């Protein structure tokens, strides 16, 4: 049931919308935006609630109590979230692309995503241990594989 190929984002049920998230964890990385050029840089410094092994939030239901700035991705704010990685399922569908071959909705698990290097698994450091974000700029979150 490849519902994302037949159902527009705006017509998806909340369950379908939620299932689009591959759980890569990239959106939980700290990012830097250059004030002058507006260029976006990813760092490997992850939100302190992110589990680097499962790539999941340790306090997802109550995360806003701990991280008020955490973002809920919705149909309304999706066009503005230009910091989402190219590999993000929401971004892919929003710009007219398909889901990648490694997406959990297609493979049935997160394994292929991890193997393709498309998640943050075992690649992050806790933001609490980072002094200067600039020192932690990385390029791997920008990679995208179909
Ligand atoms: S980057 Fe997109 S697909 Fe990956 S965890 Fe965040 S919202 Fe989900
Ligand atoms: S609070 Fe949870 S979902 Fe939000 S950025 Fe942190 S780890 Fe990610």
TrEMBL record:
Q: Name one Pfam family in it.
A: CxxCxxCC
> Which InterPro entries does the protein's record reference?
Puta_zinc/iron-chelating_dom, UCP006173
The domain of life is Bacteria
**NCBIfam families with a match to the protein in the record:** PRK05170.1-4 (NF003500), PRK05170.1-5 (NF003501), PRK05170.2-5 (NF003507)
Describe the family membership recorded for this protein in Swiss-Prot or TrEMBL. Answer: Belongs to the UPF0260 family.
Would you tell me the protein name for this molecule?
UPF0260 protein NE535_00555
